[in-house]
Every structure is written in C-alpha cells, then in structure tokens.
Amino acid sequence: MAVSKFFGLLSVMAVAIWLDNFAVKVESSQTILLQHLMKNYSKEIRPWNNNGTTEVELDVAIIKLILVEEKTETLTTNMWIRLYWKDERLSWNKTDFNGLNRITVRPDKVWIPDIGLLNRAEGSDKIGSIETRVQVDDQGNVKWLIQTIYRSSCSIDITYFPFDDQTCELVVGSRTYNEKQLRIKPKNAYADVNVYTVHGEWTLLGTSALEQSVKYSYSNEEYSTVHYHFDLRRQTLYYMMNFIVPCVLIAVLTVPVLLLPPESQERQSYGVTVLLSFTILIMMLQEKVPATSKVYPMIAVYYACTIVQVSLAMGMSTVMLCFYHKRPFTTPIPKWVKVIILNWCAKLVRMHDSVDKIKTKLYGTAWKQVAIRKTRSETCGMKAITEYVFNKQEESIRQEEWRIAAYIVNRFFAWVYLFTILLTFVIVFFNAPRTKAGTL
C-alpha cells in the first residue's frame, strides 16, 4: 500500500516537472520566435501582394446600440471591429520553433492598417478604443479584434415620427492609402449580430455591407471604403402612451365645451384648461423632436391641427353664446338663419321635432294670451296695456328663437368638431408607411 502511494506521488511529480519544462520551452520558443520575426521587421513598411496592394478584410459585430440622438443626428454604437490581412514577413516554419503556430503581439510592434471611421461625429476616427493584441499565425495571417465605441453621424428623417424607420451608416476607410495601396473589403455581406443586445427604443431590422470607392476633396485619387448600413425601426409604445393618446383624449374632452348648457359659466374656463394642457404636451414633445426646418414631423402636424380645432371649438362656443344671449329687443332672427339653423341644421342633429314642438307651444301660447288681452282691451279701453303686453310677447318669442338656434348650433358644432378630430387622426397617422403596412 505504501509502495503504491509512493509510485503515485512520484508520477504526479514527474508530470508536473514535464509540464513546467514544456511551459518553459514554449515560452522560450515564443521569445525566440518574436526575436526572429522582429529582427529585420519594420512596422512602417506596408505589406503587399503581387500587384502591390494590401488587402484588408473587415468584419463588424454589433454589441449594442447605445444611443440614437435625433436632435444631434448621431448614432452611438458599441461594436467589435475585426481586421484580417496577410503579412509575409510574419510567417515562419513552425517545425523550427517546437511546433508553435500562433503568437500574439502588441499592435505597436507590427504594421496595422491606417483605418478609421470616416463619418464620425466627434473624437478620433482611429480604430481601437480598447487595446487588444494582434494575433499572427505561421502563414503570416494577421487578425486584429478591437472593441470600440463609435459616435457617428446619422441623417434622421423625422417626417413620420414616431412611426419612422431610419437607416444609419458607418463608413470605414483610410485617408492615408489610396485604393491601389490599400483595399478594404467586407468579410461578409452583413454585420454580425450574434452578440447584439436588444435596444429599448429601436429595433434592428437588418444590416448590410458594401465596398465603395470614394474621392476626397484634397485628392484626385480613389480610396477604398466599406459602408455598413443599419436599418432601424422606432418602437412606438412609449410615444403612443405619452404623446398620441393624451393628445387624442384632450381633443375628445373638448367636446363637452360644446355640450355644456349655454348658461353654464364653466364653458370658457374649461376650454382654456384644455389649451393649457396642449401647451404642456407640446413642450414635452419639443424635447424629443429634433429642431429642423427640412421636414415637419407627422406628430407635430397632428398637434398643430388639433390645437387649431380646439381653438375653433372655443370660437364656436363664443358664437353660440352670442346666439343664446341675444337681446330680445333687437331685430328678429333673419329668415335665412331660420332656414339654415332651425330647418337644415335641426334635421342634421335630429332636433327638428323638438324645434317644432317648442315653436308650436311658444307661438300658440303667445297668440292666445295676446288675443285674450286684446279682447279685454277693447272692452275695457286698455289699448296702451295691450300694446305693451303684445310687445313683451314678441320679445319673448324672439328670445326663445335665438335660444333654440343656440342649442341647435351648439349640437351641430359638437358633431362637426368630433368628426373633424377623428378625420384628422385618420388622415395624419394612417398616411405613414408603417401604418399602411400594419407594422406599428
């Protein structure tokens, strides 16, 4: 038993010694290899192929969309940049170095492509905000993986805000080497989204990568660039609940301004409160919508139309109050007003029967009282009193006619207002492509 334990311990010690010797040998091989590679190597000299061009493959892996700023029209992204190229000077025979086929070196020790973000919004356009080592294999294939945060320019079209889709672009290229010296091409036709974290406001619909040649203003030569396009779709729930639904509710709540009794003192104050509520919503909206004169956003059009409609509703309410409080000693209600309001409008708002009953009762009572008083005046010689009573009855009839007209106008304006706010909502929001396609 003791012998077996002894041999077991001896075996463990032998393995440990072998691993230690192997690690030392590998480390020694790496040191020797690096010295061998760097002996006559200059990082200032660009590697090239047979036609004198250095080809660099570019791949982008999106980690997260950090921020899309409408006001500044910028896109901030966290991503991995993967660069692949070949440098024959960094190749070796692995059999000469104990089978070592891969090493890593600091990027300041070898040549790296002078590539950066060309449409940056601010800061340096150089790639690599987080320092990572360069990987090299025995065939001279070089791979550099860099994690970086870019803040790039993104032209944002807010015409259909908040039901809008945006396409942002990342342009990667070199300002030092022209296309004959350095060619940059995408490794894949799209960006890698396997490590992508879902954004709370924007949905990433898709990506694409395209190689293009461009000319800069300072040179007549063409330069190789890669354009990555990110198709984004705004999620609308936040804007629906905080901007659109409150606006619709406030617009609908304006209807009671036209339905309250004309003698109510709260009509105008209620309407002013509604207008103040719109003012608060507009101030909140201004913080979200970028200040631009190129286009006018759809939601701003809706707000403008709605606030005009609410203001007109207040004006309609004022007109109705003028009808209701018409002084009885003024001229009678014009015939054309009777035809339009007491006939046509009354039929439209289904108040024609009520108008007929009120008119019959009003005129019948008035003329009955006048006839009685006229008979008494002839028998008693009270002509002056009869005339006075007759005039008062005429004034009462005129006043009731104006009040009936006020009630009809009140109801008619309420229906017209409700119809216009619904029509405005349908015309404005259903004009957006996403609404037509049913992809809210």
UniProtKB/TrEMBL annotation:
The UniProt keyword set, sorted, is: Cell membrane, Disulfide bond, Glycoprotein, Ion channel, Ion transport, Ligand-gated ion channel, Membrane, Receptor, Signal, Synapse, Transmembrane, Transmembrane helix, Transport
PROSITE patterns attached to this UniProt entry: NEUROTR_ION_CHANNEL
Q: Does the keyword Glycoprotein apply?
A: yes
Which GO cellular component term is one of those annotated? Answer: postsynaptic membrane
MF-aspect GO terms: acetylcholine-gated monoatomic cation-selective channel activity; transmembrane signaling receptor activity
Q: Taking every annotated instance into account, which residue ranges of this chain make up the domain Neurotransmitter-gated ion-channel ligand-binding? A: 32-236
Q: How does it sit in the membrane?
A: Multi-pass membrane protein
- Where in the sequence is the signal peptide annotated? 1-28
Residue ranges annotated for the Neurotransmitter-gated ion-channel transmembrane domain, each copy included: 244-396
Transmembrane helix as a keyword of this entry, yes or no, is yes
User: Pfam families given for it?
Assistant: Neur_chan_LBD (PF02931), Neur_chan_memb (PF02932)
Gene3D superfamilies registered for this protein in UniProt: Neurotransmitter-gated ion-channel ligand-binding domain, Neurotransmitter-gated ion-channel transmembrane domain
Quote the subcellular location field of this record.
Synaptic cell membrane
Q: Which PANTHER family match?
A: NEUROTRANSMITTER GATED ION CHANNEL
**Protein family according to the UniProt entry:** Belongs to the ligand-gated ion channel (TC 1.A.9) family. Acetylcholine receptor (TC 1.A.9.1) subfamily.
The name this protein carries in UniProt is Neuronal acetylcholine receptor subunit alpha-10-like
Annotated source species: Paramuricea clavata
